[in-house]
Amino acid sequence: MLKRYLLTPGPTAVPPEVLLRMSQPLIHHRTPEFEALFAQVQEKLQWLFQTKQNVLILAASGTGAMEAAVSNTCSPGDTVIVVNGGKFGERWLKISQAFGVKVVELKVEWGQAVSVDAVAHALKAHPDARAVLIQASETSTTVLHPVEQISALTRNTNTLLIVDGITAVGATVTPMDRWSIDILVTGSQKALMLPPGLAFLALSDKAWKQVEATKQPRYYFDLRREYKEQQKHTTAYTPAISLINGLHEVLRLMQEEGLEHIFARHALLASATRAAARAMSLKLLAPDAPSPAATGVWLPDGVDGSRLLKYMRDGMGVDIAGGQDHLKGKIVRISHIGYAGPFDVITAISTLEMALRRFGQQIELGSGVRRAEEILLEGWPPVGQ
Ligand SMILES: *Cc1c(COP(=O)(O)O)cnc(C)c1O
Fold first, then answer.
1. Ligand 1 centroid vs 193 CA: distance in angstroms?
2. Do residue 72 and residue 174 come from a single domain?
3. Which helix (H) or strand (E) element contains residue 150?
4. Distance of CA 380 to the CA centre of its chain
């Protein structure tokens, strides 16, 4: 038997109480029972997004909500500014192009955060831009972009700030209303500790006005129709009932922990992971603006990352992520988002140490683990708490 550990930045591990909750017999969705469940989940989602707006729930992966954000606010021929610093920034670009929207692309080197100045310049050059599209946390490069500063640029303009928060919401601060985020998007299989299949988004008043004005064909992702139904605590089409049951349990667990504690836990796990990598003499992919969701680490020259990951997964039972596109085989990404604790970090680092040794590297066994333990000891609740 090989005991398995899922330590990838999506999908992430699901807590046992959530798995149990999702295995309950189905209830029909056009019933008072489901509407009561849905209403509770909606209220908890407002708490999570830190917004007074309705958070819409779609049966889709996260990309569905990204597409809905674009198709409901951008007409063909509109111009948008896309921050493209990784695979998911590129996805904003491709979705926009698919809907006939002109893209001003702000290319950012993988591993770097976008500079606020670059966004300011783009907005000056394109004052008519319909939206700025960005990731809060760019999972492919493990970078955190400066969303709060960028929101100061779009706040009192006609330009919408559309944020992919798929590995940020529930992992780090993204207070939608306080930061004047116009559309905030997330998905179920990252910080929300659920299987894939739910996408979420909330829109500001400014964004809703634009939804009415947008000339773009929409059907399944017509947010006007979805809003109308979800105000009545139901959905336009059949909801993913079991996932919404699980979501209820997840949000209960999250409220029990509290947002501040959730963010502090993610920050601590991320900081221990980074310190461990440095102690192993491995370079960080995003040293200047690291995401609390996952940590990208450069592998030593001469190590075939794809083979290393396969060995870790199939030989050791530990699944961590690799790099995409030009980073394929060159980096690993260790996840600490969602249902993650100190011993997930220890497991990931220990596995990496052992696998690198197997692959002929002169890594001192325990060097990373030791450093991670030191950081975790400093930050973990003291005895008696
Ligand atoms: C995972 C992820 C997505 C894509 O979500 P899917 O659920 O695969 O559609 C988009 N953006 C970010 C930042 C992600 O981490």
1. 14
2. yes
3. helix 147-154
4. 24
Indicate the top mutation candidate among 8, 66, 139 to test ligand 1's pocket, ranked by most ligand atoms within 8 A of CB: 139
| Residue type, position 344, single letter | D
Q: Which domain holds residue 297?
A: 259-379
Q: What is the pLDDT of residue 151?
A: 98
Per DSSP bridges, beta strands 294-298 and 160-164 are unpaired
pLDDT of residue 128: 98
Report the alpha-carbon distance of residue 13 to residue 61 in Å, rounded. 16
Distance in Å, CA 227 to ligand 1 centroid: 23
Of 370, 366, 355, 361, residue with least CA distance to 300: 361
Question: What pLDDT sits at residue 381?
Answer: 75
Domain check: are 236 and 150 in the same one? yes
Atom of ligand 1 nearest to the CA of 137: 13
Cα 192 to averaged position of ligand 1 atoms, centre (Å): 13
Q: Which of 8, 166, 185, 243 to mutate to test the pocket of ligand 1 (most atoms within 8 A of CB)?
A: 166
Residues with pLDDT less than 70, the chain = 382, 384-385
Phi, psi of 55 (to 5 degrees): -95, 115
CA of 80 from ligand 1 middle (Å) equals: 20
- For the chain, first and last CA: distance in Å? 36
CB of 235 within 8 A of CB of 82? no
Whether 208 and 344 map to the same domain: the answer is no
Q: Does the residue 3 lie in any domain? A: no
Between the CA of 15 and the centroid of ligand 1 the distance, in Å, is 20
